[in-house]
Amino acid sequence: MLSLDIFGFNALWSPMFFFILSLLVLGYFLVTVKIRDKFKGSEPITRKQGIIFTLAIILLYVVKGSPLDLMGHIMFYAHMTQMAILYLVIPPMIVVGIPQWIWRKILSYKAIKSAFKFFTHPLIALILFNGVFSIYHIPDVFDVIKTDMWLHAIYTTILFGLAIFMWWPLVNQLDEYETLSGVKKVGYIFADGILLTPACALIIFADVPMYATYSDPRAWMEAMELCVSPTILSSLSLSGPEMFNSMSLLHDQQLGGVLMKVIQEIVYGYVLAQIFFTWYRKEQKEEETIRDKDLNPQLAE
After folding, report:
1. Which residues are listed as membrane-spanning (predicted)?
2. d(CA 120, CA 176)
């Protein structure tokens, strides 16, 4: 099997993307630490927020700037791993990592606030994200998007935005934008898991390779141009992804569907546990408050 090194340093490590993300992290800490006092209503950043946001950007680079991105054009299971991390792991980390006062500043603009309220409505957020994600993995749609640089960039960016909206009702910490209670959040997660299942099942139980960009040499080469210079590709004698992967196309495809579902279950299980314990602690605190008032009537006055 061939090594990915033949594609060159730029294709493997995307230095420009690394530079852009580095500026984003620097800008984040500049606004939240260095010049925070210049913003009315700002609050000190917590260590947890800083760590979570930085980890989210590191994961974003790993997914879209490291060799994993190149592998995602060669092996379908790498692509689905990308999808799982990009849309199920990074968005909630960004929502939590951005301080609440910054979110309030962003949402203070009427147009943004109206759009946010619409797209983060639980039912709309669920349907839009899972619908657009499922449409993306319809073979004919997938092969067109995977071979067009601008269409791929636009579609995946929209999907990332919809992922932010989908996670917002679950993890946002602004009281005025809380639309779901503890019990409803549990139902929301279960509904989300159910809506994502058909796309994964279609991939897992298909008995033939579905995507031309992983099975047809010509379509595969077109897809590779999204992350590798055409000049480099033309200098190489490549026949298809089988030159880099000993796994059959069908098994690669099935593994991709399984990994997507497994990562989803792990992430949703973790969030579900967090929601449950937060809800439990809140209920316990309310019961203790009521009990204290009953034992000491003066507290109730």
Report:
1. 12-33, 45-63, 83-103, 115-138, 150-168, 189-212
2. 13
pLDDT digit string (tens) for 248-258? 999 999 999 99
The rounded Cα 207 to chain-centroid distance in angstroms is: 28
Distance of CA 90 to the CA centre of its chain: 4
If we measure between CA atoms, which residue out of 156, 152, 144, 146 comes closest to residue 223?
146
| Domain boundaries of the chain, sorted by first residue | 4-300
Q: Which residues contact 15 (CB under 8 A, 6 or more apart)?
A: 9
Residue burial 238-260, b: 16+ Cβ < 10 Å; e: rest? bebbbebbeeebeebbbbbbebb
Say how far apart CA 84 and CA 264 lie, in whole Å: 7
Tokens of 143: 């092969």
Helices (H), 85-181: 90-97, 100-106, 110-119, 122-136, 139-146, 149-171
> Per residue in 22-52, pLDDT tens?
999 999 999 999 999 999 989 999 999 999 9
Least confident of 128-132, 177-181, 216-220: 177-181
Cβ proximity of 119 and 165 under 8 Å: yes
Quick: pLDDT tens for 164-208: 999 999 999 898 888 888 789 989 999 999 999 999 999 999 999
Reported in sequence order, the residue ranges of the chain that DSSP labels E, i.e. its strands, are none
